[in-house]
Predict the structure.
Amino acid sequence: MEMVLSTEYLPGNKLLVTFRGCPSCGKTHQLTVDYYAFERYMDGVQELGQAFPELTVAERELFLTGIDGNCYAEMVAQKEF
C-alpha cells in the first residue's frame, strides 16, 4: 500500500499506521486499527469497508488517496477534483 509510510504493532492486537504526507497539505497522519483487519485488507482478503467498518469516510480516504479529511472537505467544497 503506497499511502502507508510505516506501521507499529501495539498491545492488544492493534497497529499504529502512519500515512505518507497528504498530497494537499503535506501533513502525516496516524490511525490505530486492528492488526488482523489490516492484514486481511493488505492481503486482499477483504475490501477496505469490510475490514474497517468502524472507520469514518475521512479515515478511509487516508488509506485510498492519502488525503486527510480537512483537505478532502475543502476540495469537495471547491470542486477541485
About this structure: DSSP finds four helices and three strands in the chain.
